[in-house]
Structures are given as structure tokens and as C-alpha cells.
Amino acid sequence: MNERGADQQRKRAKRATERDVEIPRCANRRRRNRLEKGDEKWLRWYFGEGSGCPDPFTYEFTDQQCEMIQAIQHAIQFGGDQALAASRGEGKTTLCERLLLKYVLAGTLSYPVFFAATSTLAMGSLETLKDAVAENDRLAADYPEACIPVRALENTPNRAHYQTVSGKRHDNGKPYRRHPARFLWCGHEFTLPNVPGAPCAGAMVATRGLDAAVRGLKRKGKRPDLAVIDDPDTEETARSEDQAEKLGKRIDQAIGGLGSQRRPIARVMLTTLQSRISVSYQYTDPAEKPTWKGRRFRYLVTPPERTDLWDQFQELRHKGLQGDPAPDPFGREAHKFYLSNRAEMDRGAEVANPNRFDPAELPDGSQMEASSLEHYYNEVVRIGEVAVATEYDNDPPEDAGAPIGSSLTAYRVRHQLSGYPRRIVPPECLWLTFGGDVAKHALHWVVDAWRGDATGYRLDYGVEETNTQPGTTDEAAIDMGILRALHTLRERFLSGEYEYRTSDGEVRSISLGLIDAHYRKLAVYQFVRDTGQRQFMGSMGFGLSGDHKRGAPSFTAKKRGRKLGDQWRVEPQPGGIKLVEMDSDHWKLWKEDRYLTPKDRPGTFLLFGDKPKTHFALSKHVTNEEIQEKYVKGRGMVRAFEQTGINHWKDADYMSAVAASMLGVKLLGGEVTGRVVAPAPRKRLSELRAEKRPRG
Known about the structure:
Distance between the termini: 110 Å
CATH class of the largest domain: Alpha Beta
Mean pLDDT: 87
Helix content: 25-40%
Structural class: alpha/beta
Number of helices: 23
Largest sheet: 9 strands, mixed
Number of strands: 26
CATH topology of the largest domain: Rossmann fold
Number of domains: 3
Strand order of the largest sheet: 21-22-23-20-19-14-15-16-24
Strand content: 15-25%
């Protein structure tokens, strides 16, 4: 070999030596094996004080934290889904990050993925894990096969591509020399060094934003085995049901489908509730998402008995903050008041984590805060009661998330629930009313029960198809389809297919029903004529947002044969038919007020059942109109409803309310007694079909 060749060989050998990293043996293998058997002790040792971790665990885990640890561990080891809502700052994300790292180092996980609302937020967890591998002294001592090659990079990630490792295998002690480590230490994911015999050799950890593409996630033949979904909600999903629904589909379909053929991916959601509309609220509700085993943890488990003393505490804090400059910005007067009355102010209270307060010493020698209970009420002063209930107790107010300027939201409608089963008439209800909105292809209808004080209950609703051919312009065929649907629905009521009973078993019948005659007046009139005008009547809405926007009738003008009521009147029509005309704007607002009335007050309106999702479509119909201001010649600026989507059940909704008014239901002077309508005699279907039918 010539001198030049020898020099090149020496340089190659030197470079190979410089690239090679010697992996020491585990400092204490017995300790590592013992600690891996339990999560809490492992976390307290490798991430406790003295570990080199910048944010160590400094106190024993609370019961809530232990429950979160167990839930995360169960998902990692056995699969399935877990949804955990804890107060902001409780450490749920930190616990999950470090538990994930434990099970990656132990070889249980090979490809976990962190998901956050955005890619930028998701990168925070990745950087935290990388810092732990690179800087944690206790991890480096007991897991050298993962930490030492990373430390040897010396902040130069590119070295990972050509680094080699030498040492003795962790599994059987056999030596290895200059084995290619082949790992990745930059970007939106990292791969741990491929050290022979290491349980974590080649394991990957990745991050993704929920706003990015996640389908088909696969690296080096591996599919993700755990998805951690951290704080998935944004301002949009917490305030918009449509956006929340889209995010829910991504979690259920895109992320839920990332697993392998044999094992579905395990999912853990860590969150703090922002509103009752949010995705987090849905997934932590066992009634809505039972497979997610949702848990909601509170900061204040049990409130104190002496809330009057805490009211005084808050007054002192507010006074100390008023003025420029504030006379008592650190709340020393309130703090002294608390210390003087602490026994009474603490009595009966239970907090989830007694360590959550600021013990810092101020220049006057006092502590900033003396307890986590004091910290809780300091936060009430700082950010407000609603924010504390939401961010700390995971109990957002019922209307949190409602769009500003909207009088009624779909969320509010479908959460107005009575708890009574479908078609069961609640006690003290005097009348049952019907409302029907007629369209070319379907009849949307509702049945309600009413007390005399305008407290209403939705017993039933549905759609009866007209079976009219799509695209037909044959008016006779359209009329016949509508007539068939009306008679078929009536047959269902009379035959007992749709039967309404009290809790005692008493059968009740519809007292009065109004059917919209605006679309096909002749068809509705014929149905009313067939049924004798005793139970069903035709109706039309008038007003700025009604069927007839011009020529609205006077609801005060008296005339022979006309019956007047509260913004409705009964107007005789040719052929002996009576038509109910009503102010649609007035009655739509009246019905919205019923939905907005709290459940425990007279005049509220409640839907059947106890599951909000049952009424998703109905709630959309009811809120698919917005109140807007517009200019009307001769009247100036007025407020009226503008349709924003399909609203058939909304029209049926307010017609049923008008029927109730015609029977005597009213908000004031509500001690009303009235005649309960007995059920009509039950008929056979053959008898019903043999009844007189309209001429074609």
C-alpha cells in the first residue's frame, strides 16, 4: 500500500472512531426493573428532585393525579380510549408525556403520536420529551442506550445519520462493535437510536396538529399504537357546533383509523372544558361517548360552608385592586382576613390538590397565599366566576358557547330536556296540541302537552312522507300526496300506533291541531273537511317573517263569525271552512322565550327524554332563523326572522303553541282549569280506510 492509501485508511479509521459512541451498562439494573413495575414510583424517581429535570415532581401525587395515571396506563397497556378533563395547570399533559416516555423506553410503545389543536402546540410536547432524553441525569444513568447517543450529538442532529455505537447488549450482555445507530433527532418526530438489545431500539415519537392531514400515518412499516390528543378545542370548536362536529369526525374517523389490522389504536384525550358545545365536553360525557370512559375532575370538589365569609374576602380583594395605582395589589387585607378566619372559611371545603398555591414570601414577610382554597378564590377575583367554573372545575355554565347576539341556540334547544320518555304525558297537563308544516315531499309535525301556565312538553315529532314524485308539477298529484300523508298520520293517531299516555296509563288524545295551509290550501281544506273540523284546522302565518309578508290581518278588528285571541284570529272561509290566521313574528318569539326559560320555572318548554343528541335535527330546524333588523317602508327599522336553513319543525312548533293559546294556555293568570280531551274510540285500519276520501 502506498503512503497516500495508508493515510486515507488512517483518516477513515479516525473518523470511524470519532463517530463511534461507547454505551455504558445500566447503572442500576435492579432499580430500573423494580421501578418499571409501577408508574408513580418511576415518575417520582426519574422526574423528581435531583433528576436534572427543569420541572420536577415535588410532592406525592394526589388521588386525582393517581386516577389520571392509571387511566393513561390502562390505555397504553390494554388499548381502548380514555378522556380526562382536569383543571388548567393540574399537570395532566406533563404526567402523560413522562408516562409515554417510560413506556417507549421500556419497549411497550413503539410509535406513539401526540396530537394538539395545531402543529405548533404539538411540537411543545415533542421538545419536552427530547429535552428529557438529552438532559435528565437519572434517565441517562439507567437508560444509557437511549440517552448517551443523543448526548453525543452535542446539539448537532445531523450526526445521528452516521453515528455508530459499541458496548454490551442490554438483553443478553453480548458485545457489539460499531453498530449503525441510524436515528432521527429533528423535525416533527424523533427516532431513538437503534442500539442492539435495547427495548426502545428504533422506537418513534411523532407530533401532529389536528389541523393537518393525519390519515395513513405510517413510518418504516410501523403504524401508530397510541394517540395522545391534548387540548383539542380551539376558540372556533368551543363556540361553533358545526366546527365541533368536524373536529369530532376527525378524532373518530381519521385518528381512530390509524391502528393496525389486528389492534385498533389506543387514544387518550387530555383536556380542560371550554364550553358545553366543545368536543371535550362531548368526549368526557359517558352518556354521549361511553367507550371513552370520560372523567371530569374538579379543583373545588366540595365548596366551603361559609360562603358569606368568602364573599367578604372577594370584596376586600376587589377594593385593593381599585384605583391607579392599586392600594393593595397583592391582596394583603384579604389575606389577613383569611388567616384570621381560616378555620371557619375552610370548614366543609375539599380541594383536589392541596399543593396548588403560591407560598412565595413577600417583602412584608407574609406568604402570597396560604392554601389552595385561597388560591381558588383569588382566581375568582382575577378571571371571574364563570372562567373559574370552566377552567378549574370543568363545569362550564349551561349557556357557555352561545353565539353573541343569538336569542336561541341549537345547543340550548336540545338540552331543554324533561326526562320523561317519548309519548308519556307529564302530570297536570290539560291539553295536547298538534302542529304540522306542509311541503311538497313531506309533512313535518309535532305533538305537545301543556299545563295551564304555558309550561309545555314535546311528546313526539316526526316526518310523514307524501310520496310525491320528484320534479312533478302536476298540482293534483301534489295535492293527493299531501292528503295521503295527512290521513295516514291521522290513522296512526287513531289506531294507537302513536299513543300518548299519562304515567298512570290513561290514554290522551290531541285536543287541537293546526296545519299550515299556505303551500296547498285546497289539500289542507279538504283534509279538514273530511275530519269534520273538530280536531284539526287549517292555519296561515302573517307578518314580516310569515308566509304572507304583506296584507297582515288585524288581530283586533271584530267581525261577525270571527273569533279573536292573542295575536291570532279564526276567519270564516268559503265552503264553511274556518282558517286560523296568526302573527308569525309574535308567536315565534313567544316560543323562543319558552325554550329560554329555565327548566324549573313556569312557562318553560322541554323536549322528551334525557339525551340531547336525540333532538339534533329538531334543534337545527328551530334555530334556522335569525332575528335581523331591516327597513320596512312606512314602519322604519323593524326586527324580523330571516330563514338561514330548513325550518319546517320551527313552523310546526309555533303553530302548536297557537293551538295551545286557543285552548286557554297563557303565561299570566295561569291557574287554568280546562276540559281534558278523552281519546277517540279506537278503530280498525279497515274502518279508517273505508272512511270518506277526498275526490281526486
